[in-house]
Amino acid sequence: MKFAEIKFKMIGPFKNATLDFSQGNPGLHIVYGSNEAGKSSALKYIEWFLFGIPQQNDENFKYHFKDFLIESTLLDSNGNTHLLKRKKTPRERTFVDAKNNDATPLLDAMLGGMVRENFSMQFGISHAQLRSGGREVLEGKGDLGTMIFEAGTGLANLRKILQQLEKRATEIYTPRKGELYVTLESAKQNQDTIEKAKLSLGTWQNASELFATLDKKVRDLNDKKSVLAIKQAECESILRALPQLTKYKTAESTLKELEKIPVVDDATLLKYQDAFKFLTKSNTMLETQQKRVKDIEYKLKNLNPDLMIIGIGNEIDALKIRSGELIKNLEDITNLGKKREAKENQIKELLKSYFTATSFDESRNLFIDQKTQIQIQELSATIVTEKALFDSTQKNLDSISKKIDELKQEEIKQTPHASLEEITSLVQTIKAKKLAPSDLEKLTSDIPARKLILEAKLNTLTNSSITWDAFLKLHLPSSQDIAGFSKLFANNLSEEQNLKTEIKGKKEALDAKQKQLSNLENEGAILTREELARLRDLRELTWVAIENLLEGKPGPLPEKVTAVVGVNSSPKNAFLNIQHQSDLFTDKLFTASDRVGRGNQLTQDMDGLKKEIAGLELNLEKITAAKTDFEKDWLNLWSGMALTKINPPEQMLTWQANALSLQQSIIELIPLLENIASKQNAQVIAFEKLLTLTNSTEIELAWIKADEIISNAANLELSKANNKKQLNSLVNDQGNLQKELKNLKEKQDENHRIWTGLMANLKLPADASTNNASQHVTAITNIYQHHKDAKDFEIRISKMESDNKEILGKLTKVLETLSINESPSEAGDIKNILGTLTQNLSDAKQDEVTQKGLKADLKNTNDEINKIVEEAETHKTTLKPLGDIALEDLTNLFENIRKKSIANKDHEDAKNALIQEASGKDIKTFAIELENKNSATITGELENIKSDMARCSESRDKELQDFANAKADLEKLEKQAGSHTLSAERELLKSQCLNQAKEFAMLTLAKSLLEDTIKKYRKNNQDPLLMNANAYLKTLTNNSLVEIVPTDADGKKSLQLLRSGSEDKESINFEAGNIKAGLGSTFLSDGTADQLFLALRLAGIQNNLEKLKEPLPIILDDILVNFDDNRTIATLNCLAKLSEKTQIILFTHHQHLEELIKKCKDHDKIFFQRMPEQINA
Amino acid sequence: MIRFIHAADIHLDSPLKGLAKRHNLPTNKILSATREALVNLVTLAINENVDFVLLAGDVYDGDPEDLNTNFHFSQQMGRLNQKNIKVVMISGNHDAKSKISRPLYPPKNLTILSAHQPESCEITKDGEVIAMIHGQGFLNQSEPRNLATAYPAPVAGKLNIGILHTSLDGREGHANYAPTTTNELINKGYSYWALGHVHTREVVHQNPYIVFPGNIQGRHIKETGAKGCYIVTFNDKREANLEFKPLDVFRWETITINLDGIKEEPDFDKKVEESVESRKLPFNEIPHGIRIILEGKTNLHPWLISSQNRISENIQGIFDGISAGHLFLEQLLVSTSGEITAAPNEALGEDALSILKQSIDNLKTSPEELEELLQESHLNNLNRAIPGDWKAKDDPNAIQPMNAAWLNKFLDDLVPLIQTIAKNEEKKS
Q: Of A50, A364, A775, A1083, which is the most exposed, with the fewest CB atoms less than 10 Å away?
């Protein structure tokens, strides 16, 4: 069945909209419509046309149900055309042919029993249906699904086996994993260790050679050390032996000398010496002691103290007491007597003077009471004091009055000089201008001199003549400029000098060469080669002559030859002669050619020199030109300065500095010069005035006088002020004093009044002065007192005189007891007698003590004497062994004994020491050996040996350490385990590896074979439906995917999409129920999924088509949504191919399909049309 | 009476081959087996107080790469020197003079006979010459000349002994090693020929004695049985008495077991145990490495094929039970046969099985196809990872994962292997 045309007469949005499918056989028809173009409606209406318009629909928005009409022209498989109409009239027929007959049976036959649901499922594919239908297949639903998965069961089992194989194989080995890998790693490590463990010959030889070398070194050093040690010991022995030998010899000679001296040991000698010493001293000691005995005996004889000592003592004591008393009384009497007489004389004197001085009333009692006495004395004193005060006050007052008069007089005198003010102002003026006469003079004299100096300097400045003013205006160049030029000049100059020197040198060299050349030329004629040739020729001729001679053909010598050698010459002599000449000539020729050579060399050298000189001179010219340029610039620099000469910059620099300072000096001097004159004039006027004012004719004097005047005036003012002050104070004092004087007068009068009253009371003359009154009182009182004293003294003296008589009596009695007849008359006598007695007593006591001491001394001394005598006897016995040698000779003997003893000991010691050092030799031989040894040399030698030894030890220690290390290293090498165990171990690993490798190889082989088997098995057991699907998939994906491998293991359906030419590795795996690709697989895109579904659906359609009598058209709606252009083309090709079997109508909203169709292989089977317009469009 | 030791082929420090690592392996002995054997030799000489020792070549396995090998030999010779036991040796093909780069510093008791021409050496005892040793060592590894021909005539009145490293006549695969004939040796007129080179012990001839003592330590499964030396005693009548003394520290044996009619795994274990015990090996004295070869027709064949490693472990377990850790499985060789059939409904169905069989048949005849098949597999990676020397072509134990010949051995075993797994899978489901 094929739609030739379908016309939507009145339905939905269409009115008479026609789709034309008449072309193609049956063909692939593509209907393009943009979105909203009514594609879906058209699809729906086609279905309605085939299977009826549903009762319930909502399409009546344009037309009423009863007006719905779809017309279509169908072609059946027999090629017959049928125009058929589908309506929606409730009560009429809904499907009729052109004649309005019921066409339902006709259509049913064509549909072959296909109902609406199956048709849309199997032949109508929209994009959504494509997906849902595809998924159902993959899930094994429906016939199609069931069929696809049926073949997979056997494969699943094989895969399980494969998995097991893989699992075990992986356990054994994958790169970097597995048991076998571990074994191989161990083997690798083992191999590395083997290489390390091997002891190579080189290593061992190195180690053992090092060991041997170091061993030898250490031995050598040890030997060397031993040799040195022996040498050291020898040297040390010699050094020890040498002094011993000297000692030995000395001792030997000493012993020889002292042969006869006895040998005495030290202790004995000491004893002898002690005895000798004692005996020598003992006589003197005895004498001393005996003398002492005599002295003592004599002293004892003279000593005789008495028993009277005691008696005298007692009497003296008694006598002393009495005489003391007596003496005291006598003295007192004398004194008192004198005092009484003095008193009496005093009274007499007083009375006499008093009587004469006063008209003393004899009746008058000489007693005046004490109160009156005090009153008189006080008043008298007051009167006297007040009188003196009054007098002094009066005197002060007088002097003040006098001074006031003087001051007043002086004030009148003090009047300052009239011209002082004028002088002062003048001096101040002069001082303000700082023009003291001397300064001014100095200034005036200095300035012209300075100007002169500057002018002189200016004249010496340059060779130019410049005026003072012009000079001041002159602009000098800077030091930097000058220095710059200086450098240029210097360079230029030095270059010039250098060049000149060089040129000079070259010229000299040239001259020298020239001279040499001349000398050469003068050395004589140069010999020619022709001459040489001639000589050779001659030689040849002579030789021929000789040959002829030898051949027995004698003949005369050629003329040429005889010309040279003489006619009589023999051929031999001629030859020799010519040969000689030839030799000489050759020599000359060489000399000559040498000369020519030298000449040529000289000429060549000279040419070179000339060229060089020319070059240098050219340079010199350039430098001179440059110099001229510099000089021009230099002149420009100094322009404005009429310099007469261009000096070198160094000088000009100095000149410039001088000029600058000079300019400065002149500038400073100018104002001074300008001011000086006016100042001078003013000064003259001022000083003239000063001269007149000070009455001086000389300025110096006037100046000093002016100062004096000013200073005096100042002093005068000061004293005037002082005077005034003093005067005022004095006038004040005067007033005060006058007042005081008046008061004093009044007091005086009062006192005189009291005094007159008092005198009257005492019955003293009324006119008695105050002084007299007092004197009276005192005199009277004194006289009274003296009388009283004199009376007392008289009483006391008479009492003492009676006492004295009694004492003296007692004394006389004492003296009598002492048998001293002389009676003392005076106290002095008694004293003397007492003194003598006391002295006697003391002497007697002293003698007693002395006597006792002397007795003891005497005994001691006698003991001593005995002891000395006894000791002397012992010592004499000690010395007896020495025989009868006089005492005085013993000292000498002792000295010799000592010497011999020392010599003996030295001899023995030295001998022993030498024996020790001689090492077996007798001393004599040893001594001979030592004869030529020098201790200093040996010491030096010893030092060297010691340092050698230290070095030796040090290097040996170092080597010893190295040796120990080397030894340890060698031992370690020789004892190390060796690689053989490791190699053996490697064999173990190899066997292990072999076992594992075998198993692994089997598993791998089994795996590969099983995979192959699976492939083949699958091929053998594939469903035809799946084969079709595979063919479609391959076409649709442009051969990218070639095979669908469904697996149904344990009810879990999964799929593999195999890629072309590849194995499982690149396949896409996924679970059938979930089209998302599984882990580890390439991504299953939407496009690929659609292609997979489409392949399956097309295979299914193909399957169904084969079952139908009349092929039904396939209606596809937008199934290419997810297809790229290439796969779209592939799909269109595929559909075009299928459209040979049945009509295919494809609705699409992709306009570009129109273009793509052109690229299709079967584009002639594809027809493109657009959706007809809608009513409202 | 003259008493001496005749030994040869010490191959010092050559490793024992074929044993896989195991926890109770007597590693110390195995790692130093040849050294230990040499020590045993020296100890024997000292204990037996022999007059001298003859070493008939191949003291070293090659030029020793490790100087310690030389040291060890020197030390052992030193022990003999201390006892004044003279050693006369010649070089063999393995330690031919030109091969040895490291010179020996022989103790004074050691005489190495020249490799350039025959040399004779006197053996003295109490100042009297008691024997003359004649011999010549190998100069190069290959010695096609008959060296014995040039050996000097016997010295009259003395015990003459020839020492020679030779393949003798008719010893297969030994052509280049100083070949000679038994007759020639007999006719030389010596009393004893101390030969070396052939590792299997053999008294080739008596009166005169021509003797191979074999090597002193078996180094792999092909050198089975006790290994050691001969103590040779000549009485005053010049009559010889030979006494073999084992010196080895590890021994090799092969046990072949016929599994005809064995149907169950327990029966198999029992059979193995019986077979081993029946050999009555002296494992209490010396540890043994055993190769088990399984033969016969049994339906255990697929299991044996597919579970070799596991069965190996079982067998080692049986060994341990018997010997208390003195027997070690060197290798299990499964040479059994059995019918391969696919029962209906098995995991490996009839279709698949026939495909598989056909593939294997194809591969057997087409080594290129086999190698190509494995190009992409891990076997190729493994091949690259295997050390070169382990792949050596002439090595029977070589590991050559990409070599068709090597792989071919396993092809017949694949179907049993896959079938066994299939059966297991079936059991699981």
A: A1083
* Domain residue ranges in chain A: 1-114+1115-1129+1143-1177, 125-151+1022-1107, 155-198+990-1021, 201-257+890-974, 266-303+849-889, 309-355+774-824, 370-413+713-761, 423-474+652-693, 479-637
Please give the order of strands across the beta sheet that includes B86-90. Answer: B110-112, B86-90, B52-56, B2-7, B228-234, B240-246
Q: Which residues pair with B414 in a beta bridge?
A: none
The 10 Å Cβ neighbour count of residue A1155 is 11
Among B113, B20, B22, CA closest to B59? B113
B333 contacts chain A (CB < 8 A): no
DSSP-assigned states of every residue in A297-359 = HHHHHH----TTHHHHHHHHHHHHHHHHHHHHHHHHHHHHHHHHHHHHHHHHHHHHHHHHHS-
The pLDDT, as a whole number, for residue A1177 is 46
Kindly list the residues from chain B whose CB atom is less than 8 angstroms away from the CB atom of residue A174.
378
The mean-pLDDT minimum among A15-19, A247-251, A972-976, B252-256 falls in A972-976
Tell me the pLDDT tens digit for each residue of A818-877.
Answer: 666 666 666 667 777 777 777 777 777 777 788 788 888 888 888 888 888 888 888 888
pLDDT at residue A1080, as a whole number: 45
Q: Is A655 helix (H, G, I), strand (E, B) or coil?
A: helix
Q: Which CATH code is given to the segment(s) A309-355+774-824?
A: 1.20.58
Local structure of residue B279 (DSSP, 8 states): T
- Disruptive mutation site among A181, A990, A1010, A1050 for chain B (greatest number of B CBs within 10 Å): A990
Indicate whether this model's pTM tops 0.90. no
DSSP string across A1037-1074: TTTSEEEEEEEEETTEEEEEEEETT--GGG-EEEETT-
Return the higher-pLDDT residue of A820 and A705.
Answer: A705
Domain residue ranges of chain B, discontinuous segments joined by +: 2-246, 251-428
Ramachandran assignment for A52, one of left (phi > 0), alpha (psi -120 to 50 degrees), beta (any other):
left
Can you spell out the DSSP letters for B126-193? TTEEEEEEEE---SSS-B-S-GGGGSPPPPTTSEEEEEEE---SS-TT-TTB----HHHHHHTT-SEE
Q: Quick check: B156 contacting A, CB < 8 Å?
A: no
Task: Tell me if residue B255 falls in helix, strand or coil.
Answer: strand
Token digits for A319? 């006598």
Residue numbers in A near B413 (CB within 8 A): 1002
Q: What pLDDT shows up at residue A1176?
A: 64
With vertex at residue A579, the alpha carbon angle to CA A575 and CA A581, rounded to the nearest 5 degrees, is: 120
Closest CA to A949 of A235, A233, A229, A230: A229
Specify whether the CB–CB gap between B102 and B67 falls below 8 A. yes
| Chain A, window 185-214: residues with a beta carbon less than 8 angstroms from a chain B beta carbon | 187-188, 191, 197-201, 203-204
Here the ipTM equals 0.86
Topology of domain A1-114+1115-1129+1143-1177, per CATH? Rossmann fold (3.40.50)
* CA–CA separation, A1033 and A1090 (whole Å): 10
Superfamily grouping for domain B2-246: Metallo-dependent phosphatases (3.60.21.10)
Pairing mode of beta strands B288-295, B251-258:
parallel
pLDDT value of residue A468: 67
Domain A201-257+890-974 part of CATH 3.30.465: no
Helix (H, G, I), strand (E, B) or coil at B257: strand
pLDDT at position B17 over 70: yes
Distance in angstroms (rounded) separating the CA atoms of residues A1009 and A1003: 10
Q: Does A1017 touch chain B (CB under 8 A)?
A: yes
Query: Considering only residues 343 to 402 of chain B, which have any Cβ-Cβ distance to chain A shorter than 8 Å?
Result: 347-349, 351-352, 355-356, 359-360, 363, 373-374, 377-379, 381-382, 385-387, 390, 397, 399, 401
Cβ-based neighbour number of residue B108 at 10 Å:
9
For residue A880, the 8-state DSSP code is G
**Residue bearing tokens 């579970």:** B307
